[in-house]
Every structure is written in C-alpha cells, then in structure tokens.
Write a sequence for this structure.
C-alpha cells in the first residue's frame, strides 16, 4: 500500500480547569470564546448544567466542564470564561478557568489515549506541546453524558428491496469517540447492516485487510473526519490510492456542520459526507451507499 497520503495539521485550543493543568479541544469545534455571562438557573437541569445564558438573543446552555469530566468544580463559579462549541447543529458553553493559546499539531503526532483509559475517559487523544503531554477533550462524550442522543432507527419506510440491500451491506465504522462508535453501531445494527468498529485510520486499514476475501468483507466505510494519527481526509486519500480498496464506498462523518467540509471531502474522493449524530441522515446515507454498492 502507498503511504503517500497528505500529512495534515490540527489546531488545538489550550485551556485550563481548576487544577491549572492544560487540556485541549479541536479548534474546529469552537465557534467563539466569551467572558462568563450572567446565568439563569434551571431548577430541574442536569447537575453539570450551571444555567442558561443569552447569546445574541439565543439561549446557550452552560456546562461546568470540570464537573462534567469528573473533576472538582471551579473555585469561582462566576470567573473564568466560556468556550462556545457548535457540534451536531447545537451550541453549548463550556465553562473553563482560562484559555491559554492556540497551537498547531501534525495530525500524525496526536496519539490515542493510553490503553486502559478509554472506557470511562473523556479524552480522545494526546498531543505533546512544548514537552508537555496535553489531553484532547472528547466533547461528544461530554455532551452525550448530559443529554444522550437517540440511536433509534426508523424502519417504517423501508421497503423489502432496501431492507435486503442493507443486510448485504458490511460497514466499518472508524471513529476515535467511543460514544460515536457505539451510536453508529446501534443505529446501523437496527438496519440489519453487519458492522465492525475501530478507533482510527491505521486500525481501519488493518481491519480491512483482515476481513478482505471473507464473508464479512467490508463494502462501505463510515469514517469520522476529526481523528488523531490520520484524519478522515487523509484516510480517504489513502484508500483511493490503495490497489485493493480504491473503489470502496466512503461516508465521511463529522460533528461539524457538513457544509464546512463538503468540498474537501469530495476532493479526496469521499462518496458522501454527513453530520453526526442524526439517525435519519445516517439511514439515508447508508441506504444510498447500499443501493450504489449492490447495483453497480
């Protein structure tokens, strides 16, 4: 296989919580940073929701990020600032102690979390910055723990032919977020799709090789875009350059607004791009994939 995929970089926003230790969030998932606003308390809200602020006339839920990832709350609940994220078409404010700076890291240098820390961890990767190991926040998991999205698929509109095509579809889900993998597996499993899941692109290439030529040979890849080691664009490019997998159907999955990435996804050879996590949209895209694969 050719390893001539394009190396890419990822911009990270570094911030601190109560301990003062720096953490990071993918800058693509940050829409703005604002001073801590006045909050309106909600009596029956999740305990990690500090309240609701108003941002340009729109309500904004404010999350105590320290508590949300199992740490002690900030010492000054009125201090610090908000990192406003826009993920899966929703905005949230993450209350942090301070924002430090923005750094750029080669995607290949952002490594998965240490083995054994994955199950309950809110970390999706680690990056070395100026000799310090910085943990990259799995913001999807933080949000899912507070307000779980439904992975229930609607099967009512499936006709017999489409249902049969789905049972003949074998998907590989590639995502560094444990929540995203679990939800994709659940939704596609309900549709009758045979699924495998891995945490990154290099593991995906190994799994494709492992299953190639067997009864569960993969015919559609559903890959996250914002991943450590090799992002979804580079992974798609690697597939398109591979002598065996050049024609495999690729869906690129992103927690960001899909309009941001569509042109680039097409340029590297992706068949379709979708925003997570919307079960109807995933269903539509996997149906498109099944029809394209089996009617070639």
């Amino acid at each position: 296989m050719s390893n001539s995929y394009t190396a890419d970089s990822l911009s990270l926003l570094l911030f601190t919580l109560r301990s003062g230790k720096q953490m990071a969030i993918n800058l693509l998932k940050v829409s703005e940073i604002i001073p801590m606003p006045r909050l309106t308390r909600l009596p029956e809200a999740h305990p990690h929701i500090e309240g609701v602020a108003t941002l340009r006339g729109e309500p904004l839920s404010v999350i105590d990020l320290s508590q949300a990832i199992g740490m002690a709350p900030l010492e000054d609940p009125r201090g610090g600032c908000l990192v406003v994220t826009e993920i899966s078409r929703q905005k949230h404010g993450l209350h942090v102690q301070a924002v430090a700076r923005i750094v750029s890291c080669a995607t290949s240098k952002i490594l998965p979390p240490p083995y054994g820390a994955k199950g309950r961890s809110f970390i999706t990767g680690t990056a070395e910055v100026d000799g310090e190991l910085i943990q990259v926040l799995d913001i999807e998991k933080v949000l899912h723990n507070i307000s779980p999205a439904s992975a229930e698929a609607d099967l009512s509109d499936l006709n017999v032919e489409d249902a049969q095509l789905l049972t003949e579809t074998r998907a590989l889900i590639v995502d560094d977020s444990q929540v995203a993998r679990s939800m994709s597996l659940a939704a596609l499993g309900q549709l009758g799709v045979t699924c495998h899941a891995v945490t990154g692109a290099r593991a995906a290439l190994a799994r494709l090789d492992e299953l190639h030529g067997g009864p569960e040979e993969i015919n559609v890849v559903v890959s996250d875009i914002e991943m450590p080691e090799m992002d979804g664009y580079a992974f798609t490019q690697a597939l398109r350059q591979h002598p065996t997998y050049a024609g495999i159907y690729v869906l690129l999955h992103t927690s960001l607004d899909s309009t941001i990435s569509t042109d680039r996804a097409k340029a590297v050879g992706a068949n379709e791009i979708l925003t997570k996590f919307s079960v109807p949209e995933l269903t539509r895209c996997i149906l498109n994939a099944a029809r394209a694969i089996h009617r070639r």
Summary: The chain has eight helices and 15 strands. The first helix runs from residue 65 to 68. The longest strand covers residues 98-106.
